[in-house]
Every structure is written in structure tokens, then in C-alpha cells.
Write the C-alpha cells for this entry.
Amino acid sequence: MHRLLARFLGMRQPLFEILSNTRFPEVEAEIMLPAREGRSRGLPDNMHPHLEAKLRSQGVESLWVHQREAWEVAQRRESFIVTTGTASGKSLCFNLPVLDTLLRHGRLRALYLYPTKALAQDQLRRLQELAQGAMEVAVYDGDTPSQARRLARDRARILLTNPDMISMAILPHHERWSEFFYNLAFVVIDEAHTYRGVFGSHVANVLRRLRRVAGFYGADPLFFMASATILNAVEHARNLTGLEVTPVSDDAAPSGRRKIVLWQPPLLDTASNLRRGNTTDAAVVLAELLVNGVRTICFTKSRRSAEVVYQSTVHLLKERAPQIADRLSPYRAGYTPEQRRGIEKRLFSAELLGVVATNALELGIDVGAIDAAMTVGYPGTVASLWQQWGRAGRGKSESLGLFLAGNDALEQFFIRHPHELLSRPVEAATIDFTNPFVHDRHLLAAAYESPLEAADTEYFGPGLGDAAQRLLADGRLARRTGSWVIRGASYPAADISLRSSSPDQFTIVEEDSGSIVGTLEAESAFSFLHPGAVYLHMGDSYLVTHLDIEPRVAVVRQFHGTYYTQPRRQSSIEILSQDVDSSFGPLRLYMGQLSVTNQVIGYQRKQVGSDEALGSEDLELPAQHFVTEGVWFTIALELVSQERDLPRLPGGLHALEHALIALLPLLAMCDRWDIGGLSTPVHAQTELPTIFIFDGHPGGVGIARQGFTQFARWLADARSLIRDCPCSRGCPSCIQSPKCGNLNEPLDKGLALDLLSAVLS
């Protein structure tokens, strides 16, 4: 690190000259994005005088074109989704029509949903500035005291909350909220792209329950949504709400020039293609930016890496510029609300020069003028990467966006193909509200709120009758005079975790304090919570000391070691149904329902950074089964040379499976850990070499479906990943996987590339 630091000149440089390939060979690519002029229109003539006066007092004399478009859509009483860039003023798109209507009609109410408490607090400040003295605005979440909750329910014209509170605290007790629902005119959903996968599938059901309860009181609210740019914005909004929406996507806000820098840590071991850890480089780069007076946000993927980068940077600053060492702060989940608000305030006021954050600051919290945004490791989606870079540069100011790669296959794919990072379409957000493992539990909650009727297909879709019959057969619903009612006096919403597709969960308990760390689906528990596992939760590392299977409890303690664990599994797949199939050259492509059986039979300890095997242990755990959605394809035998390739076939298929899993997050907004796979030279049902890729959650949430619909691009990306990696036999940057149940054996990079080339030619 000190040799790298010695190359810094220690003097203030122009923003775009601080990091360049002429100074640092680690700079793999430099791309300059041009500035864009803003396009504006005047304030609407029919805006309420109070609102117009507030805007003008804040120096707002006109609106960007997309803000005026959202206003006009709202005036036509249409729901909409806004998908414009970070810092483009999306909040005004929904705040203006909501406030204007509420100012004109003294009893109407609005409900705002946010994925994080920090974002709700930030929006509270903005709304209070605009509505000052005219109406009550309040937050209603888990931190709200009971007395304040009653005041919020009774008095707030605008209520800011989250999906969990809607599901568990408001809808089951809607009779207490009768006046609120009777007057509900608007539902605002900010950061709508965060509601995807299992979480999004749950939220889609919560919103349908919300619409149904509002309808019970005669209300039909408009839905205003804002989202990062995603591939399927209108479809996603429709899947979330069940409503038709109007898109607002013509981003007319100005933007200054932005320089994108892709940073590639140097090789430490050429034979294994292992690179220096990107957290080491991040500390040095961050220190240089701060010494040059560049206000910077550094995003990391975990709490642990945020703390490591922060501490390393402070150490460097104390050597070079001790006067600014205390102007850097970490920011992550786990801090108290007061601590987070204090950091946000110091950052907004420019008292802080920099902050090292997890993605808690990625969303639309206003942190003032930032010059540079660093992303250490791929954040999971291209949309998130642009969101993070968008935190820097407001209006016409110039900014830096930096991406520091690690050894991960997806990160190396982008380093070798920077055009793919900057020009490829963003991913599609995937949800499936009809997933029976999710949907059925929300139907029980809805029946508790009010008996289900055939007319409720308006909210829950045409499959309501079949789902109700399932619940009737299970004894969880009863049939009464043309409706379905809940059996017993249970409180179904209390048992719904919005972040799990399975009601069968393990509770994770901290050994010393007895506090609950979190929960995990039973289907994944043996892979991640087996005795001896290093478990990562919300960025913190824990060592599993005991797993009690019957009461579904895993006991953990804080872990500060330098190794991670990789489970060893035996897996099998049964094809339950084949919903669709097609030909792709010599491949036959299918999609349908799969029954997956996994048995964890051991695990291996590996050194963080080098991936060196440190030892292994055997385990005796029962097999687990779940049903999910998957895509699979068979390979024609003529593609395989019988004499030369047949012995290598298991390794070639296995390598191709890993490459496809690594790259599926480029098509669907998900993480590699949300995906499962299996490859076999001969499957009992297909009788051919077959590769399966499936959703790792019971019932599926639409991830594998994106691979099916974009199969050609998926294969082409996999070929580029394998072909362009400089290793000879396969490495973590191409075909080795940190989640492989066979510990990355066997793998054959050459045959995988031959198969892809033959198919794509």
C-alpha cells in the first residue's frame, strides 16, 4: 500500500486529472460522458398559490420537462411511474400534484411508501418545507412511539411509512384507520425498483391488499411511482400494483460532464489470476481524492468492508493530511437513527469531506454537493451502479464515477468490456405476486381484513378462485355464503416476512446476548447456517456454533476471522412440468417447474482474498426439497466429439453452468446467491447432456424467465466472459464460483468455450 501511496504527488490536481492511466497503470479505462443542458417549462398556471409561493421562495421558477409532464399526467387522473436519473428531481414529480390536491381539498390524505427509514426521514424534511404550516406530515414506522403513532393516524394528511408497517400494523386494523382510508387519494411509491424478487413479490401482494381495503371504504387512490431506470418500468409498475400506469421517462434535468474511471487492481499471482484486494486500493484512492479536496462518497458491499476502507483511509490521512482525518465518516445500517441523521447533516453541510457507506446511501437521500462517487466491487445491478455514480454531480457540476473491480467474474467481465457497462440496457426487475408460497399467505391476511369474494379478482387476478380452493382444502379458509373467510382467530399478517418466500424459517440468535440477528428460509438454512459456517448478515460476519433443526434455531457469534466457508452439496433435479420450449441451433431450450433436492454433506474453509483451501469438514444433515421455476437446455450429442470430449464433458458443462449463473444478474435484477444450477452429462428425463438454471427461492420469482427470454445475449455474454479471461484453466474471474456445491470440481474452461463457440456460430 505504501509503495502505491508514494506515487501520489500530494498536491491538489484538477478533478479529471487526479486519476489517470498516465499516473496509475491500475486505471484500466477512462470514459468521458458529455454534459447535458436542461430543458424546462414554466410553473403550471393552475398550481395552488401556497405551493407556487413556496417554490419561488426556494428559487424554483420553472420545472424540468419531465416534472411538468408528471404534473399533467396527474391532472388527467392517471397513475404514473417516473424513471429519470439520480438528482433529476423525481420527488417534485409526485410531491407537487399530491400537495396541490391536498391543499385544495381539506380532508384528503396521501400515503408514501419508502424502502428505508433514512429515505422516509429525508423526504419528511422536503415535504415539511413545501407544506409548511398548511398540513401535518408524519412518519409512521417501527421507530415511532405509540403516542406519536396515534397522532399520525388521526392528524397526518401525508403519512410516510414502509411496506412492513402497511402489512402488519395498518391493514389488519383498518377499522381504526377508517377515516384515513375513506379519504385516501394518493399512494406514492418511491424507489420502486427496490421492490423486486421475493421482497417485490410480497410488496405486490401488500399493495393489492391496500387497494382492496381502500376500495372497501370507497376510495380509489392514484399511484405515483418513482424508480431508477430499469428495462421494464411500465411492466414492473403494473406487476406491483395491478394497475395501468403512464410512463414519464424523458429526463430533462441538466447534468455536468462526468468522467468514469475503471480501476483494475494488479495481479498478485499470475498462475491463479489472483488480484490485490480492491479494499486496499479503495483506501489509497479515497485518501488521494480527499487530500485534493474532492468531496467523495465511497460505496462498499458490506459493513465489514466499509469499516476496513474507512479505517485504512484514516490511517493514510493521518500520515499525509492529519487536519482532514476527522472529516471522513463511515455510514451503514446498524447505527442508531440519531447517528445516521447526524452523519447526513454533517455531509449535507459540507462539514464532512467524505463518507464510506454501504448501499444505505445509494437511494435518493439528499447529501448535498458531491464531486466523486466510488463503487468498490459490483453492487449487484447496473441500475445500482448508475444510482451510486449519480450521487456525485448535481446540475451542471462536473463529477467522477469510479468502479474498483475485484476478482469476481462479473466485475472482471465489465473491466474487460467497459462498453458493456456503459451502454448495455439496465436489467429487468422481476416479481411474481402469484407465487403460491407468497400469494397464499397474503390471501389469508386479506381474508382476515375482510371476507374474500369472487369480485376480488379485480385485485388478486383470475387465479384467486384456484388459490382460495387450495387454502380451503388445507383447512385455512372456510366457505360462507358466497365468500371465503379465515378459519379461527389467527392474525396471518404477523407471520408474513416480506423478505422470504417460505413460511418455514430458521431464526438466527446471537449466542451471548440472545438477540435475534435475523431469519433465513429453511430451504437455504443448511447451506448457510450449518455448524461451522461463516454467515454474512447485513454486512456483519457470524460463526454458526450450533444448528437446532427441530425448533428451527441457529446460534451464532460475532466472527472476525479471515476465512469464509463454502458448503459441499449433492443435488438432483426432477422436471415437474414443461411450460414452454424452443430450439436454439443445436440446443433445445425449456422452461417450467422443477423439484430441487439438495443435501449438504460438508464444507470447506477458504482464505479471504487468496481463496486458498484451509481445511474441510464432513456434515450429516437431512436432504431438503423445494419446487421452483427454472430454465434448462439440452445439448445435441453431435456437438461432443465422442473420443476427445466425452471424458471432459462433466467439466465443460459445469464451467458453462457457472458462467451463466455469474452473468444472469445482468439480465434480471438479482444476486448470484438468488440463483441455483445443476449440470449433468445425462439427465434421467432428458436423456441428454443438460444444464439447469433455476430460481433459488421456492415457487420462483421470474429470474430464470429472463434468461429464457434473452437466451442469445446470455450465451454471448458467457462466451465473452470465458474467452477474454487471461487464465489458462479457469479462475474466480471466469468459471470458478464461490457458491459451488462441488467446490469447483470438475471444471473445463476449454470445452465450455468450444461448446459456446459451436452453438453461437
Summary: Confidence is low (pLDDT under 50) at residues 5-11. Residues 446 and 541 are 37 Å apart (CA to CA). The chain is about 35% helix and 25% strand. The radius of gyration is 27 Å.
